[in-house]
Design a protein that fits this description.
The protein is α/β, with parallel strands linked by helices. The chain has 11 helices and 18 strands. It is globular.
Length: about 425
């Protein structure tokens, strides 16, 4: 028995030693520094833009680095390709200009000892003048008012299960199961509620894209909210990752499910589920009766705008790099929003009158046009998932009060400082 225990101890020690020896490097051996000619990365239409390119090895400019580059409009085929030799590790590439409001991108690569390193940057041209390409249906408001009225007839049938394993000394966490917009259709989520008795503002946080497991997020409850984070597919978030993977494979690209049918498109139930989530939060006896905040990023950013447009109980919103914005951009020579349904991969099957009609009822731009409450909006320029052209198309359409925080260097992610600023802003909106 002692020999078995000794063998196990030695095995763990060896495994730990090996793991320590092969820990991935937190930085790259060779890296790029891409420095736009303007500090805010913004140019006027017709103005020539440039980027200083530096290749670093060990933090020092790499002599005689050879850089291959491509440049052109955001997410579209390159207009120019070339090679630049950097005698002292630094050089400048002109991106030319744009004749219309939008973005141009530069992609660079260099190869050192057989390994290729890459980076990219996008620059803005009069982005505050970007206008939507998607059309607004004449009966847009009537369509959604009718859909909400029908969904409201369905009993909520809320079922709550306390989850001690996720609860903390200050927050109780529950698994919530609601009936959504049709009898038998369910919506799951995690409710995080402060344990201290009292009345609280409520906060709805819709999810990012995908079909995947999730865990409770108690930060907002610790900040003084009753928060509700949801999924959108009617699947318990407590399922294991392998089960979720199998479900995801079976679902496929859910965002194209019944895209040719405005009344039965997949996102109809998703959008109405946002209203149902707010129904639930506002039914809680601990709600303060005044404040309803919505916040999320990517698909969650899109649903944040949708929820605030559809539900007048919402008092403020904070949306990060929202998806599903100006999807038709690709049909007008510029990048469209996630999930790029009219981009090169899908255009052949989705560019039909029926599908374009459906898109116009679900494009987030048309919900942004309906907003009436204050909003906080943040995104970056280096985002390929939700390209900034599409986000600007939506945010520029908003007539309600808006606070905008641009971090040009970010892609499809955000800094902790941005999270902190958004939370501070949301707290400032409480009545």
């Amino acid at each position: 028995m002692k020999s078995v225990l000794l063998s196990l101890v030695l095995a763990f020690c060896v495994a730990g030693s090996v793991a320590a020896q092969v820990t991935p490097a937190p930085i790259k051996l060779v890296d790029f520094v891409l420095t736009p000619g303007k500090k805010d990365w913004k140019y006027a239409v017709g103005e020539t833009a440039s980027v200083q390119v530096t290749v670093l090895q060990y933090g020092v400019p790499l002599d005689s680095a050879v850089v291959a580059y491509e440049l052109g409009p955001e997410l579209l085929p390159a207009e120019k390709k070339g090679t630049l030799v950097l005698p002292k590790g630094t050089g400048t590439i002109s991106l030319g200009t744009s004749r219309q409001p939008g973005f141009r991108q530069l992609q660079v690569k260099t190869t050192v000892k057989g390994k290729t390193y890459s980076d990219e940057v996008k620059l803005a041209f009069s982005p505050e003048k970007i206008t939507p390409t998607v059309s607004l249906p004449g009966d847009f408001t009537q369509f959604w008012d009718s859909a909400k009225a029908e969904a409201a007839k369905v009993p909520m049938d809320a079922r709550l299960t306390l989850l001690p394993q996720y609860s903390t000394p200050t927050v109780d966490v529950y698994l919530v199961n609601l009936q959504n917009y049709k009898p038998g259709q369910r919506l799951y989520g995690f409710l995080s509620k402060p344990k201290k008795e009292g009345k609280y503002p409520v906060l709805f946080s819709p999810p990012g894209a995908g079909i995947k497991p999730s865990a409770p997020f108690t930060t907002y409850a610790d900040a003084g909210y009753i928060s509700f984070t949801t999924e959108i597919h009617g699947i318990s978030p407590l399922l294991d990752a392998d089960t979720y993977k199998n479900i995801s494979n079976a679902f496929g690209d859910y965002w194209m499910n019944k895209l040719d049918d405005r009344d039965n498109y997949y996102y109809k139930g998703v959008y109405l589920g946002c209203v149902r989530a707010i129904d639930f939060l506002c039914s809680l006896p601990e709600w303060d009766g005044r404040n309803v905040t919505v916040t999320g990023g990517s698909q969650g950013g899109a649903l944040t705008i949708v929820a605030a447009a559809l539900d007048k109980r919402v008092t403020c919103l904070a949306a990060f790099y929202p998806a599903l914005c100006d999807i038709t951009g690709y049909l007008h020579g510029r990048a469209g929003g996630w999930p790029h349904m009219l981009g090169p991969r899908y255009a052949a099957i989705n560019n039909t009158p029926a599908k374009l009609r459906t898109i116009s009822y679900y494009d987030v731009v048309n919900f942004a046009r309906q907003l009436t409450v204050p909003g906080f909006y943040s995104w970056g320029y280096n985002d390929h998932t939700c390209p900034p052209t599409s986000v600007y198309a939506a945010v520029n359409s908003i007539r309600a009060p808006k606070t905008i925080l641009i971090t040009p260097i970010t892609g499809h992610w955000r800094f902790e400082e941005t999270n902190a600023e958004s939370l501070q802003w949301m707290k400032s909106q409480l009545k």
